Amino acid sequence: MSISNSMRKTFIYAMLAFCSLLFIAPLFWALTTALKDPTELYQFPPKWLPSVWKFGNFAEAWTVQPFNVFLKNTVVVTVMATLGQLISCAVVAYGFARFEFKGRNFLFLVVLSTMMIPWEVTMIPQYMEFNYLGWINTLKPLIVPAWFGSAYFIFLLRQFILTIPRELDEAATIDGASKLGIFLRIIVPLMGPALILVGVFQMMSCWNDYLGPLIFLNDQSKYTLTLGLAQFKGMFGVDMQSIMAITSLISIVPLAVFFFAQRYIVGGIAGTGIKG
């Protein structure tokens, strides 16, 4: 029996290691391609490791385009949009989870139903609206909508709040705390794992967003990193070495965030969906 269990565990670990290699291989290929000499990019059969490691390719690719400007724009959009999602979704989720009012369940159902509408459907109406407001070619279309919440994040946070005992609210009310005080002093601190989960998801969505900036931004000084990366693809060719170098660099931030926040992500997911 013990031998069978040992073989089963060995097989499972071997499969997990194999699947991990499949996920790591593209990133490893991008990194090694960025370090190759241009003459080695299209060799057949392809070489996984470069003959000469050219670390200067990263600095050269970064300075070909104004990536310092692109990085600043991306950080502004990511930070402001993430902050907007955290504040707006937490407030709305608290209202749905703790306040009793007529039509609450219907309104919550309406909010959830918006998840079935793909962004491609609302893309043109949003563009027309932002154009009317004079926001085209600014960062506002990438930031302001996040301050009105996301149905998915509202659902996650509401489910997490439902797991918090109401007795804590009642005890705070007896002590004279207001609804806002209960939210800020009790609910928000206990929502830590769920808020980190929402923050990480929103951060990665903004950092990797390409379609949004492509539609709303025209001036290169407003470009984000993803649009700057696309500049290496021209009409007559593709600067593969620079693409791989910049891809490797801009992947560091989401990888680092996910690595340090993974235990909070697991805790946030585990804490949702327990109550309905």
TrEMBL record:
Q: Where in the numbering of this chain does the ABC transmembrane type-1 domain appear?
A: 71-261
Q: Mind telling me what this protein is named? A: Multiple sugar transport system permease protein
Q: Which GO terms describe its cellular component?
A: plasma membrane
Residue ranges of the TM segments: 75-94, 106-122, 142-161, 182-204, 242-261
Q: Which Gene3D superfamilies match?
A: MetI-like
Domain of life according to the entry: Bacteria
Q: Which GO terms describe its biological process?
A: transmembrane transport
Q: Family, per the entry?
A: Belongs to the binding-protein-dependent transport system permease family.
Subcellular location field? Cell membrane
Do you know which InterPro entries this protein is assigned to? MetI-like, MetI-like_sf
Q: Give the matching Pfam families.
A: BPD_transp_1
Tell me the keywords, alphabetical order.
Cell membrane, Membrane, Sugar transport, Transmembrane, Transmembrane helix, Transport
